[in-house]
Amino acid sequence: MKKILISSLAASLLLFTYSCDTDFENDVNDIPVTSGTADFSRFISIGNSLTSGYRDGALYRQGQIESFPNMIATQMKLAGGGDFNIPLMADELGGIPSIGFPNKRVLNSSLGLDFAEGTGATTLQNIYSSGPYHNMGVPGAKSYHLVIPGYGNPANLAIGMANPYFVRFAKDPATSSVLSDAMSLQPTFFSLWIGNNDVLSYATNGGMNSQSAGGATLYTPAVVQTGNTNPATYAANDISDPQLVGAAIKAVLDGLKSVGASKGVIANIPDVTTIPHFTRVRYNEISLDAATAQTLNTSLYQPLKAALTFLGAGDRFELVNAGQNPVIIVDNSLQNVSAQLTAVLSANGYPAQQAAFLGSAFGQARQAKPGELILLTAANELGKDALTGQAPTATSQFIVGASFPLHDRFSLTATEISNISTAVTAYNQVISGLATTYGLALVNANGKMADLHTQSGIQFDGVKYTTTFVTGGTFSLDGVHLTGRGYAIIGNEFIKAINNKYGSNLPQVNVNSYSGVTFP
Asked: What does CATH list as the number for 8-279+415-513?
């Protein structure tokens, strides 16, 4: 099996890509900075992990300091902006050990994905007395979570109706919603970037959810009203209905407008399947030498294909060859032929126990196809002995991905990718419409991510940035969240949108002055 590694040399190349071009506008430093028609004196930022500065699979202090809202607030101070307080974690590790919160900071860029356990000093203790806080990014929050009273109540954690990050800085844990706390600050200007998690959790769980096997469940609840939302209605890994997302965002905008915050900036949702978490591991990641390929064909693929052909499902597998081969995945949209496959294998001489094992394992399995996605988290599973969960030995017969299906939570089929794309398109139509209705600046985060996903990427003062894992410089080691430089790129998009809408001339930040991929 091929071991996937990223060398330290490849990582170092991040800093040495030069060009005389730049995709960012140059700021004229000798012109006085003004706010235009906006008032930046009390700026707040509402959102999820992308707003909080989450990176490397955890929320830690340096990431929070390099959050894009903090960058924007720094520029706003040049035009009358006030203080911008952040609910800082207590350390650089991430996690909240007192409640066994499982977030871990990724410390190694190799696809072994080494983690540092979140055993630092952060507790669940409420720190609002040191606030109030203006960065209201809550990792894990979906759109409708923003309007749920008690989302910061520690008593609700056990039933999944609260968020430990918000517990730390909620004004009144028993009753606060993110929206109500934002309203209490009476902001003069706001940023809102929400909706990513309404589809991302489905994607990062391989399209799995509690309502259907492999397909997205789109809920159609009544219009969300502040204080009248039951999160237990929504399965954690499902795609939120666009009507729900739109109603939740509208409730936030209405709440802010009611306290005088009628000016702000809102961002749309990037296509999550273009980020490294879904693109780093190839669909044909299985590398075989000629002898291994021949052995696998003789012992598994030929009899398996023959049995499936008899059942009318022979197109699920082809024989393997020396070189790169598709990963075996589970596709729950396929007819489950486990019982029939077991019977056919038994009839062709397989011992009963082995026939039952193969029938169960391959009843809805097939080889991945071009364009389908294998998640970054699969890197810790591919190539292992399926029976022991350990590295394979000379006697191992069932190797994950090569001779045994990868679990469904580690892949996205073409149908699941289509579900995600449909949802993102619908969310962005809703967000664009709300930006127009409420007269807000609109950030095309989806478009900027598409630019980054091209081979040429974007340039800033001679440094090239792309979505390529590690060497692209934009994404942190979890493959989902940005580096300091990535957040700076997004921050500049917010600044440009604000300037264009309100006639301000906030200077853009220097992307290259922030941190990129960091290693221990």
From this structure: 3.40.50.1110
